Amino acid sequence: TKSKYSSVWNLNLLTKFIMRSGLGTARDLMRRTMGLIVAFSATRMVELARITRNDITFRDKIMIIKTVVKKYKKPKQFEITFNKRQIPCCPVDAMKSWLSAEECTKKLDEGIWWDYERKKKLGGTGCSRELRLLLDEIGIDKEYAGSTVRHSMITKLRDEGATQEEVNEATRHAPGSNACDTFYYKPIARDIGALILKDFEDYPNKRCYNKGSWFSSNPLVGTPQAQVPRLARLVAVRRDHLKRNNQKCAMKKKCRHEEQHFILSDLAHISLVSKQTNIESPQTDLLDVPNPMTPEYPITEILSQGRILLEKLPNIIGENDPQGKQITIVGDLNGQFFDLLEIFKRNGKPSNENPHQILGNYVNFGLFGTEIFLLLLCYKLAYPQNVHLLRGNHESDFCTKLYGFKKEVEDKYSTAVYQNFLLVFNTLPICAIVNSRVSIVHGGLFNRTNVTLEEICQINRFNEPGEEEGEVLMEQMLWSVPTNLVVQNQKFEFGPNITDV
């Protein structure tokens, strides 16, 4: 069975095999072979346990396994095709090694696995319990076990336009099965490849990630990707997911953890080295860092480099651009990553030829505050003279705890990473002046009219708003708003009677 739909969602499983599965004993070799068959094809345990020597055929660089699925009294035969891969965890090589092992050839019956007899009655639909035990022995984390792999395939195929019949065929469900409707909206089953960066940080040979050789797709659903998807392509695939999440409020909390790394897999390709000058062709990639990285390494490195750069800047950023040159000024984003992408689509990405001023409030409310701020910080590191990040009132300890950013970072990373975000927030400049004519600030006006630029320059901005001593001018610059609501903190409210003047 073949399909026109691409697949990259089993990468985490393959990485786990490389890191955790040993080959010291015959049992290790057997388990590794079984696991790779599952990882590359989402084979169910009821199929896996019944594979015989006669079901396996080798042709040149492919392996074909014949299986039969019998459900609702409707048996259907399938041929699962595995392509030989030039990677350490090739299922074809693993199967050949196991079939030639002395322990395998000693078996008298037609079965090829220890402890799994061809006629053994296996429990449960898809035999998830047995698959769970198998993956436990190999060392796969629980979120990748059982029927999760198959369910992630279902979601991926449906998102790419496959019909229900095509989904059933690719995942070897019986004709007419409603499995794709049953599991389509299960958060835990959604696109296992979303956590790709987290796992690859633990794998020493990271360079193969860039070459695309690890995108060895499921043989049932297309050919390998030639290259890691860029940000726009990845986001396009995930756009429907986000829409569905917004429509299903009850699912938002469950989906947050699973969405955490899908954008960062592309952030890593933007690169963060402070010497980098071309964001589209980075000289150094985070994934090429020679030492093994913890899951938090790329994040803390981005924040560390950004903090070093930002703390050297004055309170007021001076921007001088030729007359007629476009400057993109962006207001509150509040975690809405796709709004930022739409701005880039309409006005172009930040560059030396396309300056951007971001007025703060990158985080809170939306699900992607971390991704927004990290992406913009990467652009700042790449184009320090033409990308300017200002502080908003939500870049504070008070607001991030109250409106969700603290919880977001702790869910995705740790409390230590959250503290690093706060340190960077405290270094953000508080206003900008373009061509000595236009003042740009997140909030609004002061409670007196004779505040000078010199006074703003003297503000100790490396604090929480309201803790900068003196007249708390920074808090007024971040909190003052055009409204008639009750006063909050030290902000100054103003309306048309002020702005018209």
Would you mind describing this structure in some detail?
41% of the residues lie in helices and 9% in strands. With 501 residues, the protein is mainly α. The protein has 2 domains: 11-228, hpI Integrase, Chain A (Orthogonal Bundle); 290-442, Metallo-dependent phosphatases (Purple Acid Phosphatase, chain A, domain 2). It has a 3-stranded antiparallel β-sheet with strand order 1-2-3, with no helix packed on it. A 3-stranded mixed β-sheet has the order 4-8-9. A hairpin with a 2-residue loop joins β1 and β2. α2 (26-41) crosses α6.
What is the fourth-level CATH superfamily of the largest domain? Intergrase catalytic core
- What is the CATH first-level class name of the largest domain? Mainly Alpha
Structural class, by secondary structure, is: mainly alpha
- The radius of gyration over CA amounts to 27 Å
Instruction: Please list the strands of the largest sheet in the order they lie side by side.
Output: 1-2-3
Overall shape: it is: elongated
SS summary, helix count: 23
CATH fold field value of the largest domain: hpI Integrase, Chain A
Cofactor: Mn(2+)
EC number: 3.1.3.16
Pfam families: Metallophos, Phage_integrase
Organism: Streblomastix strix
